[in-house]
Amino acid sequence: EGGRAARSLSTRLRAEHGWKTLADQRGLLILHRGHDPVETLPHETGFVFGERFGRVEPDPSPPCSECVDFIPGWITERWGAFVAIRIDRGFDIVRVLRDPSGAYPCYLSDFANVSVFFSSAEDFIALSPGVEPDLDSVRDFLRYPARQSRRTGLKGVDELAPGECAIYPREGWSVEAYWTPHNFAKHSSPLDF
Question: Do the beta carbons of residue 100 and residue 53 sit within 8 Å?
């Protein structure tokens, strides 16, 4: 049923909103719309949406087109506003990674039995005009604006935190932190006063 729903959704998005298909294979459908740059990983094993650059000049990291895997070392050498998708066809695992800065948004939802990731809330609302506000989330935000959570204020729509990776194996899914400030802070030399 999920495959049929994904096909229907894909047809609608391409016809009504001008989306382009980047990948369509074994239950995975990746569509793109907009002007953000998209880099393709080798052998179509994934995509990087947005801008990315090396941590130091000159950038010692190879371009995305030469990377075999972006997890976990890839994220320590690349910065910028991006979302990366890695497709492991051998194990049927898809990973969706949000950049550590959080500059590129990455929302996730379940739409008609299809897991959907997107970076534009406006696009999602156009896709699902009946989406309702999550009043509990809005109330929490108004009470504690500095508190961060995955909730977005839209029912059924969550947001990956910066540096998090959503992992989709054959069944189920999970979220892991692939980058945290702690990983870098613990290796820093102590402050000398």
Answer: no
68: confidence class by pLDDT, cuts 50, 70, 90: very low
Strand 174-177, strand 157-159: pairing: unpaired
Q: Are 133 and 154 in contact (CB under 8 A)?
A: yes
pLDDT of 16 > 70? The answer is yes
Asked whether the beta carbons of 174 and 167 are under 8 A apart, the reply is: yes
Q: What is the DSSP string of 11-57?
A: HHHHHHH--EEEEEETTEEEEE-SSS-EEEPGGG-EEEEE--EESSS
What is the average pLDDT score of the chain? 78
Q: What is the pLDDT of residues 81-96, one digit of tens each?
A: 889 888 888 888 889 9
Sheet order of strands, 93-98 included: 38-40, 46-50, 82-88, 93-98, 164-168, 174-177
Query: What are the phi and psi torsion angles at 104 (to 5°)?
Result: -105, 115
Place of tokens 């979220």: 175
- Rounded to an integer, what distance in angstroms lies between the CA atom of residue 140 and that of residue 6? 33
